[in-house]
Amino acid sequence: MTAGSSRGWSRRTTAYAVTPVLVLVAVVAVAWLTTPRTSGLEGEWETAAVPGEVLGGRALVGSGSPVAVDLVTGTRITLGSVTGGAPAIGAGRLLVLGDGRLDGAGLDGRSRWTWQGPPAHALTLVAAGPSVTVVQACGGTPGGCRLIGVDGNGRESWQTPQPTATGTSAPVVGADGNLPTVGVLPTPDGTLVLVDPASSRIVLRPASRASVGADGRLTLRSEASGGCALTTLETLDRTSTSTTSEPCASAPPPPGPERVTAARSRVWWWPFGDGRPTLEVRGRHTGRVVSREPLAVLRHDDAGLTVREGDVVRRYGWVEGG
Description:
Layout: H1 3-34, E1 41-48, E2 52-55, E3 59-62, E4 67-70, E5 76-78, E6 86-90, E7 93-97, E8 101-106, E9 112-116, E10 121-128, E11 132-139, E12 145-151, E13 156-161, E14 183-186, E15 192-195, E16 202-205, E17 209-212, E18 218-224, E19 227-233, E20 239-244, E21 258-265, E22 276-283, E23 287-290, E24 295-300, E25 304-309, E26 312-318
Antiparallel strand pairs: 1-26, 2-3, 3-4, 4-5, 6-7, 7-8, 8-9, 10-11, 11-12, 12-13, 14-15, 15-16, 17-18, 18-19, 19-20, 21-22, 22-23, 24-25, 25-26
């Protein structure tokens, strides 16, 4: 074999050896570039999940145990020796109403208190403001109800008789343990009695239907000319009103900042299986979360998205432009 033919053979051998490697690299690159992945969001924190349910869209509360994970900050709190009772969420606090007592803890882990209600009274949670929780206490002699404000140290802040027009009617609260930021007591004719947690101030509103939304925001629906007026209250003095053309019975709630839908993400080069669990976000922000683990939305707001991925709770924040 001549020197020239030897060099030609060497080049062909090198080409034969390199080509499969280049093809493999190209395949891996295409696979990486086309694999679905999380976009429009970035992880902020994660913590182990607890078996339980989401209350008020704000905390994942353990079933049968007073443990909660704040879905905004990831802080994990516990009420220690508290057992039983009905848990609720209001103004960043976990509240557990038991037999004649109320236990509270800030979801930031900085406060913990217990308040003992009046003897021989049935207690019901009414509302939660930034610093005061409102409790309805019914019973005693003569029979009747009163409203009591409990401050952030578990001490009585104020007390007032429940307006007689409401009788002993139960307050309006969220079905998921979500306490409104403004107390609501209905009357037989549909008029609403609104209670300010901070001051005990009481305001009457014309006949309306009340519901409790995200973070305790109260929405009142009342018939308006040609449709339905929806008034949202963060406090007695901070309100916003919108009108729909639909009757109140069928009018949708005020829209949130985002809409989250579950989907499956697939790639063209892998025809097997049913894809990866995916959450698609549309609205004021857009993005998606893709995972190998089962996904469930726990909370979404204007700052980010909190999801459960398998046995982990993970918080994502919106990235700029998302």
